[in-house]
Amino acid sequence: MSIGKVPKSKRSILEELGLSNHINNKHRHIDPLLAIGWIQYTHAENLNDRNQKYRLTHAGLKLINLIKG
Fold it and tell me: Would the pTM of this model clear 0.85, i.e. be above it?
């Protein structure tokens, strides 16, 4: 997955991981990252917003930097 400050859609994240845009893949791969706090919603006040996207949190970016060295 490319790293950056640009929010990404669910479809984009799953495609970059080589997964189909299926609700089960969101539950398996995106929801745990939300729960841990490594990513966050761009529209947290309305989780069903049609423009909902996800962005890395400070903790998520820190983890990526640790992994990359």
Answer: no
